[in-house]
Amino acid sequence: MENGVLDEVYERLRDTGPERDGWLSNHAPMAAEALVRHGHGGQVHAWLDGYADRLSERPRGIQRISAGEWREPLGDPVRSGDWLTFFQRQLGERPWREVLIEWWPRLLPGVAAGATHGLIRVGHAVRALLDGEPTGTVSPARVAELAAGLGYWAARWQPLAPAGKGPYRAGDPRAALDAVPRVPHQRSGIRTRLAQLADLPGWAESAGAVPGDEAAGVPSRLDSIVEAAVLRYGTHGHGNPVMLVHAATAPNAIARVLPVLPAALWEPSLQAAWAATAAVTSAYSPAAARPMPGPGAADAAGLMARGLHDQDSHGIKFIDTALDVHRRTGDQAVLDVAAYANDLIVRG
């Protein structure tokens, strides 16, 4: 039944655009996928009813994008409708894994697209596709959702300032995040903040120094980056409760796609995940840490129900990522941070 509900959600959202009011992302398909996955399929349509006023129509196309002439329109948001149609066509003609593997290395350098939401939407769509495969429910609606995520990523494609080529840090990811330099001007939007990275002393070295032991392997190192970003939110999330969510959800989206990718793409995926986490950290972290309030006795079973009750899509997606981390580690602190994050976001 849950699989059927998710397909209904995707069908319901098929004609909606990836953004509204310029830069604000459509979080509905991502949050709804998380709610269904965690057992709240029975409430997801009501949640969508409450989100409906934040949805816009799918943008119209301007000019057809051909498979051999994609470079020029890459990163042009005016061509959003064209990119959505392009990937709809590609995924209608070829297996979804084949299209994803072809486009992943093209899109990955633009990881900052839509404040990382292009990547995150693809991560949710891929998880839904993988979840459906064992039961034979790889439906057209799920393939269409992947097309929408890839189209959004391509239209908002935005590279970060180049990373350096320094040695890998031997330290843990949390220490590496603490060492990321902050952009000097933090009173503007994400594009302005990220533009400062190119001239920021220490940025190239930090972004190029992926933390962790190389011998541990890419999946383990990627999981450690996600865990560090979740836990660091507990002491730094107050700096910008909404935007700092993406320091954790962006690399986790890459972790969700990793099983589909050939091994040759794992290392660049890890590098992009770290660069995205470091960039969001640099752009939005406060100057000083603040102790998190005492543990709220959060439990895994009730955490997503709390997110559903409070109805904030960023809270839902952060809880979703935290539950991934908790499933691997069993760390109660992860659940407490997720509960704290949800409260910060709702209050803010």
UniProtKB/TrEMBL annotation:
Keyword Oxidoreductase: yes
Pfam family, one: Questin_oxidase
UniProtKB keywords: Oxidoreductase
Molecular function as annotated in GO: oxidoreductase activity
Record protein name field: DUF4243 domain-containing protein
Organism (species): Catellatospora bangladeshensis
Lineage of source species: Bacteria, Bacillati, Actinomycetota, Actinomycetes, Micromonosporales
